Amino acid sequence: MTLHLDDLRVRHLGECRHDSPLSAMLAAKRTSPHYVAEGDRVLLEDTVSMLAEHGLPPEDLPSFEAAGPRRKIYFDPAQVTAGIVTCGGLCPGLNDVIRGLVQELTVQYDVKRIVGFRNGLRGLTARHRDDTIELTPDRVRDIHNAGGTILGSSRGAQDAEEMVDSLLLRGINVLFVIGGDGGMNAATNLAAAIRARGLDIAVIGVPKTIDNDLPYTDQSFGFQSAFAQAANFISSVSIEAAASPDGIGIVKLMGRHSGFIACYASLARNAADIVLIPEVPFALEGEDGLLARVERHVRSKGFVVIVVAEGAGQDLLAERGLLEGGATDASGNAKLGDIGGLLRETITAHLTAAGLAPTVRYIDPSYAIRSVTANAYDSVYCLRLAHAAVHAAMAGRTETAVVRWRRRFVHVPMPLIISHRNQVDPDGDLWMSVLEATGHLGQQQPLLVER
Amino acid sequence: MTLHLDDLRVRHLGECRHDSPLSAMLAAKRTSPHYVAEGDRVLLEDTVSMLAEHGLPPEDLPSFEAAGPRRKIYFDPAQVTAGIVTCGGLCPGLNDVIRGLVQELTVQYDVKRIVGFRNGLRGLTARHRDDTIELTPDRVRDIHNAGGTILGSSRGAQDAEEMVDSLLLRGINVLFVIGGDGGMNAATNLAAAIRARGLDIAVIGVPKTIDNDLPYTDQSFGFQSAFAQAANFISSVSIEAAASPDGIGIVKLMGRHSGFIACYASLARNAADIVLIPEVPFALEGEDGLLARVERHVRSKGFVVIVVAEGAGQDLLAERGLLEGGATDASGNAKLGDIGGLLRETITAHLTAAGLAPTVRYIDPSYAIRSVTANAYDSVYCLRLAHAAVHAAMAGRTETAVVRWRRRFVHVPMPLIISHRNQVDPDGDLWMSVLEATGHLGQQQPLLVER
Amino acid sequence: MTLHLDDLRVRHLGECRHDSPLSAMLAAKRTSPHYVAEGDRVLLEDTVSMLAEHGLPPEDLPSFEAAGPRRKIYFDPAQVTAGIVTCGGLCPGLNDVIRGLVQELTVQYDVKRIVGFRNGLRGLTARHRDDTIELTPDRVRDIHNAGGTILGSSRGAQDAEEMVDSLLLRGINVLFVIGGDGGMNAATNLAAAIRARGLDIAVIGVPKTIDNDLPYTDQSFGFQSAFAQAANFISSVSIEAAASPDGIGIVKLMGRHSGFIACYASLARNAADIVLIPEVPFALEGEDGLLARVERHVRSKGFVVIVVAEGAGQDLLAERGLLEGGATDASGNAKLGDIGGLLRETITAHLTAAGLAPTVRYIDPSYAIRSVTANAYDSVYCLRLAHAAVHAAMAGRTETAVVRWRRRFVHVPMPLIISHRNQVDPDGDLWMSVLEATGHLGQQQPLLVER
Amino acid sequence: MTLHLDDLRVRHLGECRHDSPLSAMLAAKRTSPHYVAEGDRVLLEDTVSMLAEHGLPPEDLPSFEAAGPRRKIYFDPAQVTAGIVTCGGLCPGLNDVIRGLVQELTVQYDVKRIVGFRNGLRGLTARHRDDTIELTPDRVRDIHNAGGTILGSSRGAQDAEEMVDSLLLRGINVLFVIGGDGGMNAATNLAAAIRARGLDIAVIGVPKTIDNDLPYTDQSFGFQSAFAQAANFISSVSIEAAASPDGIGIVKLMGRHSGFIACYASLARNAADIVLIPEVPFALEGEDGLLARVERHVRSKGFVVIVVAEGAGQDLLAERGLLEGGATDASGNAKLGDIGGLLRETITAHLTAAGLAPTVRYIDPSYAIRSVTANAYDSVYCLRLAHAAVHAAMAGRTETAVVRWRRRFVHVPMPLIISHRNQVDPDGDLWMSVLEATGHLGQQQPLLVER
C-alpha cells in the first residue's frame, strides 16, 4: 500500500507522432475539476493525513496518469486493425463496452477493421476452431439491450505465444481485453510475450469483476446493475420468509473474497437481518454465534433473512471437512465450499432442536444476476470506459488498464490491477453502514463473534 | 473557486461532552482508504497540478471535515426531539432519506420522538394549519417502495422567526432540512435566526436537486434514478420518430441551469442525435445551426432525436420576445421560456419549407421522472447520507450540509452549498463523452456554432 | 347486433387442394375445450338468455370459423411470396407479430421469401420511394425486445389499384396487413380490388388498436402492455399531486371513442379518484358536476387524481366553441378537442375562486405508452395471433381478420371488424368495477350527472 | 366432463331478503355482451359441436350462475363480521385480493369489521397462538405494491370443527378463503361442518394456483405475473448458455401436474429450444430421445436451452429409483423427484461421452417467481375477483368459488373446483403453439417420443 510514483507509471509503445483527429478540439483545455489535461496526474490519496504521511512535494506524490484523448497519438488510424475479446464470467455491461469500443474506434478515429474473438481467450488460439466476428457500428447498435456478451466467453488460460501468433496472423495491432483476474493476468503475459518479440501491438485491459474486488477502482462496471438485481432476490426471499411461520430466508450472492454485492444489496432493500461476508469471520455456535442470533430473530419477529456471500465462512467448512483441499475451477481459483448449504442444514437442525418448525427458503441466483442488462448508470460508465480505452490504445499505451478512480478515468499498469483484491474493510464506512442498517452497530459485539 | 481552509470549516453548537453509543466501536479506527477518522479531513483537490498551485503543507490545503459518527457527541439522545421537513420539487429518494433518518435516530441513538412537518416549510409555520406526523420505524418501514415524499412538500420561503417559534413550540432541538437551493437558503436563514436568539438547535441540511447542480457533491441523490427514467423517454420518442417518415423526436428534460440529466440520459441510451444544454449556446439558423443539422439528419437517416434541457436556448427565446422579463415562480426562480415549444415550431416550419413532411413527437415527462422510486444505488446512497446527517446533528454541527465528495461523506458549510451551481463544463470530460457518443467530436464545430 | 350465421362467414380464395406440412399432426384431433377442429365453429353468444333469443338449432347459431392450421391448404408454399405491412399509430407488439409471421412462414411452411414494406401503406405504392426489407428469421430474431415497428408506419389511405400493382410487381400472393380502422379499411378495399381483377392474392388482417375498440375481440394485442404503462403514469401523477398542497393530478390517456385504457389503468393502481371516458357524459357545473366533486376531494383528502380519456367530454368542448368543426387528422378521424387542457383551466379557475391554491400536474404520456415493449402476455398473444394469421392465409382465406374471441382464435370477415367500435358499456361489468374502485357505486348518481 | 346443469348449481344459505345498497343502480340492467343479469347464466360450452352434443334447449344447457351484485342480499351488512385467510404457497396477487375484499366490504357494503387470520388455516385454530389482524381500508391501501401476503400463509389441513369454533368465537359470519387445492378442500370441509351444525356462515373461495391448473377457469390470478417473471429467467439462462462454449441452460419451473407456466414462459421469450411438461412424456435415450436432441442442438447452434416443469418426467425418475414412494409434503401432495437434477446429470454425462465439454447453467427460481408483485393485468383481475367474491357472500352463496370463465365472472360450486385439474392438452392449441415456436411442429415425432 506504500506505492510510489514509479509503481503507478504505465508502459508506452513509443513516442506519439501522429496528430489525433481530436487534436484541434483538445488544444485549449487545461486541468479543471471536470478535466484532467494531458500530462497531469490524479492523486492516489484523498485525505490530509494520508498526504502528510508521504511528506513529498505534489509532483512526487503517488498518482495515476489521467486517461483521455491525446493531441498526438501513436498509431496511424488508417493502419489499425483492432481486436476485442471478453473473458471469464458474465457481468452486466460487457456488450456496452464492446459497443462503445467499436463506435469510438470507427466514428472518432476512423479505424476500418475490428475483429471480435469468439469464446474468450480460446478464440485467440489456433487449437480452437472458434471463429471471429467482424464488428461494425451497425452490428453493435442494439447489443446493449441484452445482457451477456455477443462474443461469448470462456474461463481458463491459454498459451501466450500461441495468442501472439494468432494476433499476427490476423494483423491485429491493438487488442482490447475485457476480463477479470484471469483475463488481466493473461493479458499481462500476452503483453510480455509481445514485448519479448519486439512487436508493435498495444494490449489494453478493461478490467471486469462482478464482485467489485478490483483495487484502484471506484466501482467496477456492472456492479450497480448486479447488486440491484441481487437486491430483488433479497426482497423475494424476504417476502417468502415473512409469509411462512418460522420462516428462514437465505440468499447466497457472488463474492469469493469480497462481500461488496452482499453489503450493497442488503443496504438497498434494508430487508436483511444478517449479512455474512468473507472479510468478517463468524462462529456458528455460542451465545453470539449465528445460530443463536437466528433463533432470537425468529422468536422475536417470526422470521429472519440472511444474506451470505459465497466466500464467507470457508473456515467453518474446512473445520467440518467440507472443502476439497487444493481443488480449483476452470479459472484456476480455489473451489469454494457451499456455505449456503451449510447454513441451511445447521440452521434447520438447530431450530428444529429448539422446538421450532422452520420453513427454509434458500436461493442462489448467480446466473440471473450475471446475465442482467446494464442499468442506465452502468451503460454510461461502460461507454465512457470504452472511450478511455480507445484513447489509451491509440496513444500507444500497453499493459495498461483503464479504470475510474475518485471519479476520474485513469491509466493503471496491469500488474497493479492484479496485485491484490479490493475488499470490504471491517473498519470502514461501508461495513459500518451495514451494521447500522441491520441494527447491529451499537452492540458490544459488532456483528458476530470475532473468532 | 480559490477556497481556503477557513471557508470549508463548519459550525459547531459547542463542545461534544456526551459519550456516543457508538463510542466503543469507534475507538480503534484510523484513517484508511475506507474510513476517515475523526479530526482528519478530505481534500478538495485531486490532481497534482491543482495541489501544486496551492503550494501549502498538507494540513493547510483546502479540505472538508469528514462526516461519520464521533466518539463524543453534543446532544444527550434522551433529550432530543428531532424534526424532518422536505422542501421544493420532488426527487427520487426523499422517502429513503426520511426512512434512513428515522431508523438511525431510533435504532442507533435511541431518540424517542421524531416529528415530520407536512408540506415543506409551510408546515413549519403557525399561519398554515398543516399538521405534523409522528415518525416511527414502523411508520417508515416500507415508504422507500414509493416515490415522492410522505411528508408532502411545497415551494417558496417562509418567515425565519416564525419557523423558530414553531420549533420551540414543539421542542425540536435537531432539525433536518431536505431541500434544494430554496430549502438550503431557508435553512441557512433559519440557522442564523436560531444563532441570533442563542438557541441550542442544530440545523442539518441534506441537499436535494434533481438537476445535479450542487457544488462540492459527487452526484446528488436521486440523480441516477432520474436520468435512468429520462433515458426511457428518449427511447420512447426515438422509437416513435424512427417509425414515422421524416420523424422528429424531441424530449424536454429537467435542467434549469445545468444539463446533467440531458447529458447522462443521452449517454445511457445513445439514441440522441443532438443534445442541447444551458451551458452550450447554439444558433438556430446558419449552416451549422440547429435547423440545418436537423434537416441533414432527417435526409440521411430518415429521422432525428433531440434531447433538450429546459434551460437551454433561453437567449433564443429572449431574442424572439418569448420570455417574460422578471417573472419568477413560487421558488423565486426566473421563469423559463418554453424552448421545447420553440424547437417544435421552428423545426416544423423549416422542414416543411424544405419540402419534407415532418411528424413531430414532443414530450415533457418531468412529473413522471421526479416521482420515480429510487433505484438500488440511490437507495443505498440516501441511506448512508441519512446516517451521516444524524451523526452530524448528534455531534452538534449546525448550518452544515452532508454531501459526498470524491466518494467520501463530508460536511460542507451550508452557505457554500448555495454559493454557486455545478454545471456541465463545456471543456470537461462529460461533454466530451456526449460529443463522442453523438458523433460530433471530430467535427470542426464541436456541436453547434458557438455564438 | 343481431348477426346471422352468414354475416360471420369469411371469404375463401378457392378450394384447398394441397397437403399441409402439418397434415399428419392434425389428423387425429377433434373439438375439445382446448382445440377447435376444422369445420367446427365458435359461438358468438355465451349466455343462456342470449342463446334462447335466437331459438335456433346449434348449427344455425351465430358463430365464427375457428382459426388454426388445416390439413389441406390452398397455396403451395414453394410458390408463396409473402408481404407484411404495419399501418397507423404505434402499439405494443407490432414487432412480435412481424416476428411471429416470419418464423411461422419459414419454419412451418418453408416459405422462401418474405417482403416487409416500409412506412405503412405508403410503402405499397409506386409514388413513394420507400424501399422494402427482406425479412428472414435471423433479421427478426431479437426485434421483440424493442417497441415500435421495424417496418415503420404511416397514417392515411392510398390508392387501392396502385397497391395491387405494387403487389403484382413484387410477386406477392399473401399479404398481411397489421393495422387499425384505417388499415383494415384499406385492406378491405385492396381485397375488393384484387377480387375485381380476379387475382389470386390473399389479404389477411391482424387488427391493431391501442384503444381496445375492436368489436368481436376479447382484447386487442398490446392493450395489456399499454394500460400497464398508463397505470405507471397515474401513479406518477398521483405521487406528485399527493405531495403538493391542494394538488390536482390529471392524466390524459388514449381513447378516442372508448375508455378502456382509462378504465383498466385506473383499476390497476386504484389511485384515480375520478375517471372520465367518452361513453359516459358528464357536466362541469352543478352540485354533481365535475368541478364540485373535484373541490370536495381536495377539501377532504388534500388532493385529487383525474384520469381522462382523450375522447371524453367532446360535447363540453363543442359547447365552448373549442372544436374545429369538420377537421380531420391524417387517418381521416375527426380531430379531437383538448379535454385535458379544458379540465386544467376550468379546475384551476374554479378552485382558485373557491379560495384554494391548486398545484396542477398534467401529463399526456401518449408516445411513451405507444412505444412500449410488449409484456410477456402480449408477446405470447402476438405470437399465437401471427401463427393463426399464417394458417388462415395458407388455407386461402382472404378479406379475413384473425382475432381472439372467448379465448379462441377465430376468423372474422374484415368488414365486420370495421362495422362498429367496441366501447365501455355504462351498464356493463367493467364500468361497474371502476365505480366500485373509485367509491362511487353506492351513490345515487353513479359517477357524474347524466346530462 | 359431461356435466349437467345440476352439477353447476351453487349452494345458498337462504332467501335474499335485504335490499342491497347497490339496488337502485342495478334496477335497469339486463343481459348484454358486457353484463350478465341476475338469474341469467353463462354457458359452459362455446362451440357449435359441443352444444349440438347436448341436444338440449338453451335453458337446460350446462351453465354457470353469473357472479356480480344482487338487488336483494342475504346478510344485513350491519351484522356482518368478515374473515379473510390465505393458504398454501405464495402467488402474485394475494395482497391485491385482500385489498379488494376489504375495500368492497367497507366502501360498498359498509361492513364494519374484517378480521385477517394469520398464517393460513393454522390461524383459524385454537391450538396455534397465531393472532389476527384488523383489516381496514387504511391498513390495506398500499399492500398491493409488494408480493406475498400480509396475512402470512401455511400448508396442511386443520380440524374443521376446531375452525368452526374459531369462527364462532370471533363472530365471523362471512369467510373468504384464498387458497389452492388444499385450501379449497379445507373450505369445502369447513362449509360442510358449518352446514351440519346449521350455522349461518358463508364460505366463499377465491381459488389460487400459480400452476394455472384450476378447472372452469380462464386463467388463475397471478398466472400472468408468474410466467412473465419465469420468462425472465429463461432469458437469463439463455444468455448464460449462449455465452459458454457447449452451453446448456436448464430452467426448472413450477408445474406439478400442469405445464402452463413452462409453456407460456417459453412462448413469451421464444428462447427455449425444448419444453418438457408433465402432460407429455418423453424418453431420454434413443434417436428421438432428449439426449440425442440436446446433442444435435449443441452441435448445430452451439448451445441449448431447456425449460422443464417440475412435474415432468416423473416416470423416468421412478424407473431409476429416484422417487420416494408414497412420500408427501406438508400440503399432502406426493413429493416430486428432482427432474432438473436428473437432466443436469444425464445431459452432462451424455455430452461428455460424446466428446463435448458442456457448461451447464441450471436454475430453479421458484421463490423468486412466487413472491413477485402482481402486474397491472393481474391487479385488475384480482380486484374484480374480490368484488365478485364480496357480492357472492353478501347474497348468501356458500361453498362457492368465484372464478372467471370465458371472460365472465361466475360462481362455481367448490367441489367442482377440486374435482380435477386443468392441464395442457397435448392435442390443444397451446401445446401446438409451443411446438410451432420451438420449431418442432412439422416433425414426424411431435416433440419427443411418445412412450
Automatic annotation (TrEMBL), chains A, B, C, D:
Which of UniProt's keywords are assigned here? ATP-binding, Cytoplasm, Glycolysis, Kinase, Magnesium, Metal-binding, Nucleotide-binding, Transferase
Q: Which reaction does it catalyse?
A: beta-D-fructose 6-phosphate + ATP = beta-D-fructose 1,6-bisphosphate + ADP + H(+)
Query: Cofactor(s) for this protein?
Result: Mg(2+)
Its pathway is: Carbohydrate degradation; glycolysis; D-glyceraldehyde 3-phosphate and glycerone phosphate from D-glucose: step 3/4
Q: Where is the Phosphofructokinase domain?
A: 82-392
Q: Where does ATP bind?
A: 89, 155-156, 180-183
Domain of life where this protein originates: Bacteria
Under which EC number(s) is this enzyme classified? 2.7.1.11
The enzyme's main class, written as a single word, is transferase
Could you state a single Gene Ontology molecular function term? metal ion binding
> Where is the secretion signal located?
none
In this chain's numbering, which residues are marked as the site (Important for substrate specificity)?
A: 182
**Residues that bind Mg(2+), according to the entry?**
181
What residues does substrate bind to?
209-211, 254-256, 310, 367-370
Q: Name the active site residues.
A: 211 (proton acceptor)
- Gene Ontology CC terms, in alphabetical order: cytoplasm
Q: Name one Pfam family in it.
A: PFK
A Gene Ontology annotation in the biological process aspect, one of them, is: fructose 6-phosphate metabolic process
Q: How does it assemble?
A: Homodimer.
Function per UniProt:
Catalyzes the phosphorylation of D-fructose 6-phosphate to fructose 1,6-bisphosphate by ATP, the first committing step of glycolysis.
| Family statement | Belongs to the phosphofructokinase type A (PFKA) family. PPi-dependent PFK group II subfamily. Atypical ATP-dependent clade 'X' sub-subfamily.
Protein's name according to its UniProt entry: ATP-dependent 6-phosphofructokinase
The organism named in the record is Saccharopolyspora terrae
Q: What are the top taxonomic ranks of the organism?
A: Bacteria, Bacillati, Actinomycetota, Actinomycetes, Pseudonocardiales
